[in-house]
Amino acid sequence: MKQWTKEIEINAPIESVWKLFNSLEDMQKIMPQVIDNKPIKVTDEKVGSVYRQKYKEGKRIEEYDVETLEYVDEPDRKRLKIGFTLAKMFGITAFYELKKLDDQKTHFTYTATNNALKWFVKLFMLLANDKIVVEFVERVKQVAESESNL
Asked: How confident is the model over 66-90, as pLDDT tens digits?
């Protein structure tokens, strides 16, 4: 299993950053490849909720079920961990953690894990790097800051 963690300070209120993870419209600003996110099972406490997500890569569309594994929504601290299986080959988790530094600053930590489910895919995992994770935290920062300065 591979794991990558990146942290960044965002010049935007914690609620402005958090909303980017909560609706399809806002999610697409930071994850433009996600083209659909339909609820399949929703729980009151959010943990255990499942969403069918569609992801477009070039001309191909992948469909998978995303389960909420952890959910914390407090004024100074937000956490969301999701997990899904991609193409029956990768078990993936994404963990987003926000901490309020002050009214206009948020600390964002993103941790992604990728577990190869087939032996032959493990060879490709040796070549994996953190480029996508770095680009993602920078996109979250850029979108959150541009929207909070409107």
From this structure: 999 999 999 999 999 999 998 888 8
> From the centroid of its chain, how far is CA 72?
14
Neighbours of 127 (CB within 10 A): 6
> In the Cβ-directed half-sphere of 14, how many Cα atoms lie within 13 Å?
18
- Strand locations in the chain, DSSP E? 2-10, 34-41, 50-57, 60-74, 77-86, 90-102, 105-116
Top pLDDT among 126 and 2 is at 2
Place of tokens 């032959």: 120
Tokens of 89: 């080959």
Three-state SS for 103? Answer: coil
Predicted confidence band of residue 104 (pLDDT cuts 50, 70, 90): very high
Cα 79 to chain centroid, rounded: 11
Q: Which residues contact 145 (CB under 8 A, 6 or more apart)?
A: 10, 11, 12
- Rounded-to-integer distance, Cα 30 and Cα 93, Å: 17
